[in-house]
Amino acid sequence: MKEILLQKIKNRDICVGVVGLGYVGLPLAVEIAKNQFKTLGFDINKEKVSLINAGINYIQDVQNETLAEVVDKKFLYATTDFSCLKSCNFIIICVPTPLDKHQQPDISYIRSSVEVISQYLEKNTVVVLESTTYPGTTEDLVKSILEEKSGLKCETDFYLGFSPERVDPGNKTYKTHNTPKVVGGIGKDANFIIAEMYREVLDSEIFEVSSPAVAEMEKILENTYRNVNIGLINEMAMLCNEMGISIWEVIDAAKTKPYGFHAFYPGPGLGGHCIPLDPCYLSWKAREYGFHTTMIENSMMINDRMPEYCIERASKLLNSFGKSLNGSKVLILGISYKEDVADYRESPAIKVIQALIREKALVNFYDPYVPEYINGEVVMEGLTEITPQITASYDLVIITTAHTNIDYCMIQENANLIFDTRNVMKNIVKRDNIEVL
Hints:
By secondary structure, the chain is an alpha/beta fold. It folds into 2 domains: 2-210, Rossmann fold; 245-436, NAD(P)-binding Rossmann-like Domain (Rossmann fold). Helices cover 40% and strands 14% of the residues. The protein has 14 helices and 15 strands. Strand 5, helix 6 and strand 6 (158-162) form a beta-alpha-beta unit. Helix 1 runs parallel beside helix 7 (188-201) and helix 8 (212-243) runs parallel beside helix 11 (294-319).
């Protein structure tokens, strides 16, 4: 099997299936197709499939021309017909792994994808999970379903491994093609074949580890590291505010140290598809071993509290000018979870809006990348433009995302009050109407 698959890879004679065409799956499918591998993209969303086959991009990190080219040359084709998986020799799973209403891992998307794959799994096939999950998922869940449903045996009839996605939407330097890749297969041969495939389509280091569990834990460590450090800096920000010290100046001073310090910054909370969620996966799994991840859970509580803390600060700011949140007009600048992207998954800005509405404030938002957002059954439309007149009509402007294409000088000149949770207005000299987190 190893030699058969290696030859197929070297001859570009292997068909790759990518299950899930979102922020992870579509950029990866395009990179594979760019390298002249026949690539089938699978998704249950008919609209996404239609857009891809028309050469129309919906992911910011994918170039329109590149997508159109690989589709036109028939290296990439998207479908909702999962029976086409039977023609794929290398299958990559890139489906969401959210939390359920109890803040516990929801691996239903992985489970359902693997069950479908098992119906069409052929001998001499490789299956790779890229979705972020708790350690043990690949070996305990994916492997058992594939073997039980297909009747095939891992390492003998098919290879299986885990290679964590590392997607940072909007990153101007690191994209799918040049971000180092970690590979953990079940068995050395699986490791070798999976690594060889990624080497053919990526321009980055491929780092092999001894098992899927190591690769799964590695991914959670990456994001838990950021969660914990952001929790530390958010707590420091709250303390510094009580002491009348600027946390932003403190960080600028600390980062002059050329070793032993990496700068993290406070904000209204955590957002995105990984950092707010991955520590929950780890804490949940740790309880199976009777282990409590105290530091991690504490950082999660601090970060979860930040939207409410921002509302407390906003309320005090309005009170100092004789106003209350109840009945005040509040404009939120930025809905996406990070600057210059359209991704608002788990965005703290939405939690800030929800808290403001509970306080009976009159809320609207403006985001140049997000004209509207959907949160559960709630659809909220934002302003289509931001002008001096619009800015002046609000009692308070809260900056929740540091987009670079907003005229902050205009905002400062016309706003009554500004609460800047991102320090994006740090270079504005006139600051009598600005308060910083």
